[in-house]
Write a structure and sequence with these properties.
The chain has one domain (about 5-130). The protein contains 5 helices and 2 strands, in the order ααββααα. A two-stranded antiparallel ribbon has the order 1-2. By secondary structure, the protein is mainly alpha-helical. Strand 1 (about 50) and strand 2 form a beta hairpin.
């Protein structure tokens, strides 16, 4: 294997994993920041939030949604090129759809949401432009583009 191609693959995997970490830090801070919003804790303690009943099914769904970017931190480093590329694109599109669906409630929420959406967009763009550094070799030793 060509060392330069190995470095490129590692750099892309590292970049994608780092972007997922960046996204998660922003999401976590955004969520923690909501706790100091007046009335937030009281509203959650009633078992409803913004008119939505907080149920075990809703919490489980939220856990699945949160697990997508969490797992992508690891999968971005471990998956081989093809699966990695598509997993990053699909996971970022799904996560971006949930970001858009949840919307923002105030200025600080909007600020964090813009940063998070920019990170997800950069993940999609980086994964989309990522080219296989190890194209398949033909029987006579010529590279075949994928």
């Amino acid at each position: 294997m060509n060392l330069q191609k190995q470095m490129l693959t590692m750099e892309t995997k590292t970049k994608l994993s780092s972007l997922w970490i960046f996204y998660l830090f922003n999401t976590i801070f955004r969520d923690i920041h909501e706790f100091i919003e007046p009335g937030f804790i009281e509203q959650v303690m009633t078992g409803t939030f913004n008119g939505t009943q907080i149920t075990e099914h809703l919490l489980l769904f939220g856990g699945f949604v949160a697990e997508v970017p969490i797992s992508m931190v690891l999968l971005s480093r471990l998956l081989p090129y093809g699966a990695n590329r598509w997993a990053n694109i699909i996971a970022a599109v799904i996560t971006l759809a949930f970001e858009i669906n949840n919307g923002a409630t105030d200025l600080d929420d909007t600020f964090h949401m813009v940063i998070e959406m920019a990170a997800l967009s950069f993940i999609i763009w980086s994964a989309w432009r990522w080219r296989n550094p190890f194209p398949k070799q033909s029987a006579i030793g010529q590279e075949v583009s994928s």
